[in-house]
Amino acid sequence: MTEKRFALLIANYEYDDVNLQKLTAPAEDIRELEALLRDPQIGHFDEVTSLINKTVQEIRLSILHFFLDKVPEDLLLLYFSGHGMLDTQSRLFLATRDTSPELLRATALPSRYISEEMDQCRSRRQILILDCCYSGAFASGIKSGVGSNVGTKIMFQGGGYGRVILTATDKTQVAWEGNQILGEINTSFFTHYLIEGIKTGDANPKEELITVDAIYDYIYDRVKPKQNPQKWSFKAEGQIIIAHNPNIRQPQLSKDIEVLLDHSNYQVRLLGLDDLIALVNSSSDSASLALEKLERISTHDLAKAVQEKASNFLKEYAKGKRVKNLLIEVRTSIVQKDWSVAEKFLSQLIKEDAQQLEIDDIKEQIKQGKNTLLYFLEDLNAKFEAVASLASEVDYHEVAQVLSRLDRFQLPIKIAIVGEFCCGKTTLLNALLNENLLPTDFIPNTKILTDVIFGKTQKIQVRDFSGMIAPKEIDRETLINEYSFQVDDYATNEKIYIQIETPNPFLADGIQLSDNPGIQPSSYVYSAILKQADIIIIVAQIDPGIGSREVDFLQSLFSIIQPENVFIVLNKIDTLRYDLSEALKFQKRLVDVKIKNITSLHEKRFFAISALEALKARSVTPADTEKIKESRILDFERELKSHIQNLMFEKAQRKYSLFQEFAGSVKRYIEQIRQTIEREETTHYTADYGNKYSATLKKLEGINNQLDVLIKETELAFYEVNTDSRQN
Fold first, then answer.
1. Tell me: the pLDDT tens digits for 222-234?
2. With contact defined as beta carbons under 8 Å apart, do 178 and 141 qualify?
């Protein structure tokens, strides 16, 4: 079945209520958008309906019929331009001509209505575009800030399939007087660039089709930082085509270059080659075309001098490209602390005769990177394996016992973040990682235990605690929809957990973060995470502060972890209505009274921060350093990282001691064998025995020498990291 394309365009810019400011320009915008969508050479929509300044009932009926009786192959585009407002429960309403701000539920269009109709529709390709002049407005007389987040993602997520949402906040210059919006409202940037990107083809100039993603990227690049357009995709498969490109631009060489290259005199053609080479080295759209032309000239030009010049450049160009790719690979490996891979790419760079300064710089980075506790701890694993392999050659029987003890000193450093619902655990985790990795919102999100570990690419898996069921890989959308709290779903699943791998620098330092649902020590979470944790961070809201449940939980922790490995974070200081220093002093005193003999906990492990403000300040470019300082997260991070370093050094010391014990034990065992052989040789000497004993002793000597090398290398490495740690 062939697809059919339907569009419903709604614009409201005149309002009966004087408290709603009239908007300018949407009338022209919607007419031009309608014409583009109807154009058989561009939008190619079968039906386009425009509703301008209609009542809420008229719009409701039109939306109902728009989504009715559609089939999965149909493409549906719903566009709205006008005021958006929030009620007292932060629910989004779209203003119509007869909307009264004081009677939203009765006179405005609820976002829930649109979402439900989209859910009922069978179409698997739905586009919703909201160009609301105000992302938030009236809430029982309290105005939300212009451009504030209305929770559009949650409002329109629904349960349907193939849904893409684009939203915008207009540039505004406004003032408030009572419940009235005053001031001039400029033309919508969002719709302006939506139309421009399609009409000119600039949204995807080199391609025949313009996708939703392409038009969003085009708009985003042009309205930032004045606006913050958003895009969400729910269960959409593949690219959704919004229009055909009316102006595909294929790159071409200039006529001047063509004239030079077609000249009968080869000296003139050489001049044309210079222009081609300059074009290849530029960022011009014609660079790839110039490269193709050079390749043809290198084999087909009649003059040998022209061929050689083109061939020599192509060889140097290919070499430069290889070097550039190798530099990317080696620097990526350095960031990921994959030193063996970095050294492999470095050797290839040396063969390619890369610039000496670059090679020296990379060598220094690798040298510094390997001279770290993290590398030392990981390299010790290889050293243990090498000693175990040598031990097996002489039938040393204590290998398994020693290696089982090794597990206690392995990385990562495991950090468990725990606390009551709504205290901001997940926001704190995101702030530490400096990215919005896990979903956060005004309702609790952590439904089950979530482990976050380092990985070279991002991967999300559902795992079984028992290990009996194979991990199931999921995408972020499934994580949000199926493994986070819904409004009416507060039951945790203790038999499974989520594991997220991500290439985050914070985790690359040998750290694992665990986001835990609540503070009830259930059997799975308690045994799987808290008992294995190196550090536990307890998060509570600064107001009302630490309660009896947190105190009881703290007391239970000290049977499994030392107090110095527990951090208390009082979050959400941005919402505090009282003096922060007094609130913090009271909380410290409370813990001191309730829990005895943990001075090291409340003096050095007690912090008051705003994880949300820290995350927001780090999410902008460039980061807002003043806001980060105000969030007070830096002191917490500094102490946490220092403690992590101390724990890592402690692991390194104990692991190194075990290695010395292991290698020394194998050496002593070899010495016992050697002495036994020498006694046997003295007692039962014959020529055959002599040859056999000689070969065995030679083998033992070789193994012993290899052990000496491993011991010496490890001693030197430990001395370097020990010295480095003391200096830091």
1. 887 667 787 877 7
2. no
Radius of gyration of the CA atoms of the chain, in A? 34
HEC string of 172-185 equals ECCEEECCEEECCE
Q: What share of the chain is helix, strand, coil (3-state, %, to 5)?
A: 50, 15, 30
Cis geometry, peptide bond prior to residue 229 (ω within 30 degrees of 0): no
Considering only CA atoms, which of 170, 82, 167 is closest in space to residue 128? Answer: 167
For 68, other C-beta atoms within 10 Å of its C-beta total 11
User: pLDDT tens, 497-522?
Assistant: 899 999 888 898 889 999 887 776 55
Alpha carbon distance 41, 629 (integer Å): 54
The CA–CA distances, whole Å, from 617 to 372, 435, 524, 625, 631 equal: 30, 11, 36, 7, 9
Task: Annotate 549-605 with DSSP letters as a single string.
Answer: HHHHHHHHHTTTS-GGGEEEEEE-GGG--S-HHHHHHHHHHHHHHHS-S-HHHHHHS
CB count in 10 Å sphere of residue 332:
15
Kindly indicate the confidence band of residue 431, based on its pLDDT and cuts at 50, 70 and 90. Answer: very high
Q: In 610-632, which ranges are continuous DSSP H helix? A: 611-619, 625-630
- pLDDT greater at residue 61 or residue 143: 61
Counting Cα atoms < 13 Å in the Cβ hemisphere of 650 gives 10
The token pair that represents 624 in the structure block: 């807002």
Q: What count of residues does the chain have?
A: 728
Instruction: Identify which of 591, 607, 490 has the alpha carbon closest to the alpha carbon of residue 539.
Output: 607
